[in-house]
Structure formats: structure tokens, C-alpha cells
Amino acid sequence: MLRLGWFSTGRGPGSRNLLKAVMDHKESGDLDIEIAFVFCNWDNTEEDNPKREQRKMFFDMVEGYGIPLVTASWKTFRPDLWEKDQEAWRNEYGKLLRELTGKYDFDLGILAGYMLWMDDETCRQYDMLNLHPALPDGPKGTWQEVIWQLISEDADRQGAMMHICTEEWDRGAALTYCGFPIRGEGYDGLWQDMKDKLSGKSLEQIKKDEGVDEPLFRKIREDGAKRELPLIVSTIRAFAEGKVEIRDKKLYSEGKRLDSPYDLSEQVDASLR
Fold first, then answer.
1. What is the C-alpha R_g of the chain?
2. CA distances (Å), 140 to each of 10, 85, 117, 131, 132, in order?
3. 164 phi, psi to nearest 5 deg
4. Disulfide: which of 8, 34, 64, 264 matches 234 by Cβ 3.0-4.6 Å?
5. In contact, 72 and 93? CB cutoff 8 Å
């Protein structure tokens, strides 16, 4: 059985949906896993806490599943150090995180909507996976930045990947991914509309005028977002079934190191049908 450490900021429905999806698969017998703990970087006693109600719902869900809930408020932890030296603060917070979570035996950490950067030592000591909303050779940045970059490059594919957390933030090796075409049915007309708009104004102006509601942007986002949850589940399943494993921050399958990330596009697409 694969034991997971679950790290989440618990700030909205996305955090709950992720946890529920994995637990639904576990309870149906589809995933041979146990979540050893859920760690949250808020504890809901903070005075300045705009997501208090959302976080309470998340905490209630965790406790309803009988999963140990571990919290350490980043807002109230060493504010003096935060003001002086944020890197030193991150290292000290990382020590606290490892003290609180280190007593739970777990094989793999999942960053499931965890909004704090992990310190270097935690990245070295724990094997943790994070979602990035692009293909392994795709753009870096937020999902918004990724999609605008794809549009600016006239790209023909998009996807999502799970990468290992390393000291280089958002630069750890991609371990698994899924991809899909952003050309053909449902897309070609939107690309033509974008081309027509670009004949009269810049992409920057289109971003400013329409933002995330621009139809091509929105279509790429929708098709990517619906694959993120299945990719996380499929990735966990690949580890739980022993198809892949991490050794020294590298991905192995059947005892051999893989030179490229594990393609789960087929499994992800099948789950959408």
C-alpha cells in the first residue's frame, strides 16, 4: 500500500475536490493507498483569514475521512523573521513542518493546492509531487501565463504534468504528464477568430480587454483543467501499482531509469469518456 503525505492550503473547492477524488478511488478499491496525514499551512485561528469558511469545510472533510490533520499557521509563525529574512523564515518553517509531519510514515508527498514554496531541505528529504499546467517542454509560470504563451507561439498541443519538487522552484524533473491537441474540431474556428483580432490589435490589448474570458483562452483552459484531477489520480495509481518509483529524485520503471516522463495521456483521456 502506498502511503501519501497530503499538503494543501485548503482555500477553496479545488482543494476539496482533489482530496475527494482520491478518497473516492481509494474507497472503491481502485487505489491501494492510505493518506497518512493532511498538512495545512493555516490553522483557522488567524485574525486575518479571508478563506476561513472554505478552510473549515476542508478541515471538516479531512476529519470526516479520519485522516490526521496537521496544521502550522504561516501567518503567526515568526513574523519577526519574516520581516527580516524570508529565506531564513522559510527554512525555519520547513523545520517545523518536518517536525510535525516526520512522525508519520509516508512514501510520497502530494502538493494538492499548497500555496507556500517549500524550503530546500524539505525538498531534499521528502519526495513530493506538484502539478504544473503545461507539457514537460511547455511554458513555465501560472496557468494564465502558460495559456497566453501557447497562444502567442501558435502552439498545437497543451497538457499538464506532475513534477518532483526540488530546490529549484517549479523546475524539478517532470515525472508524469498528459497531452491533448489544441487544433482541429472545436479549436480551428477560435484560432481563426484570434488571428482576425490580432490583425487589429496586439495580444497584450486582447489580454487587457478580454482576459480569461477570451474564447480560445477559455477553451484551452477548460480542456486542460478537466485533465488535471485525472492526471493526479493516474499518477498516484502508477506509483501505487509499482509501475514507477522515485530513486534519488529520478523516475524508474521496472528497475530502469526513465529518460523521459511517463505518458499517462491514454489513461487520462479514458477517464474522461
1. 20
2. 24, 26, 16, 12, 8
3. -80, 140
4. 264
5. yes
CA angle 248, 253, 258 (to 5 degrees): 70
C-alpha span between 148 and 169 (Å, rounded)? 21
Given this model, what pLDDT does residue 170 score? 56
Tally the C-alpha atoms within 13 A of residue 233's C-alpha that lie toward its C-beta: 23
Among 100, 37, 84, 25, residue whose Cα is nearest residue 63: 37
In angstroms, rounded to a whole number, what is the distance separating the alpha carbons of residues 125 and 164?
Answer: 12
List, for residues 116-165, the tens digit of each pLDDT value. Answer: 889 999 999 999 999 999 999 999 888 999 999 999 999 999 999 999 98
Q: Cβ(111)–Cβ(7) under 8 Å?
A: yes
Beta pairing class for 262-263 and 174-181: parallel
Report long-range pairs for 114-119 (Cβ below 8 Å, ≥24 apart).
114/7, 114/8, 114/9, 114/41, 115/9, 115/11, 115/41, 116/9, 116/41, 116/74, 117/90, 117/169, 118/94, 118/165, 119/90, 119/91, 119/93, 119/94
Does residue 169 surpass a pLDDT of 80?
no
Please state, in angstroms and rounded to a whole number, the distance separating the CA atoms of residues 105 and 48. 33
pTM: 0.90
Q: Which grid coordinates are listed for 136? A: 514537460
3-state SS string for 110-137: EECCCCCCCCHHHHHHCCEEEEECCCCC
| Residue 247 neighbours by CB distance under 10 Å | 10
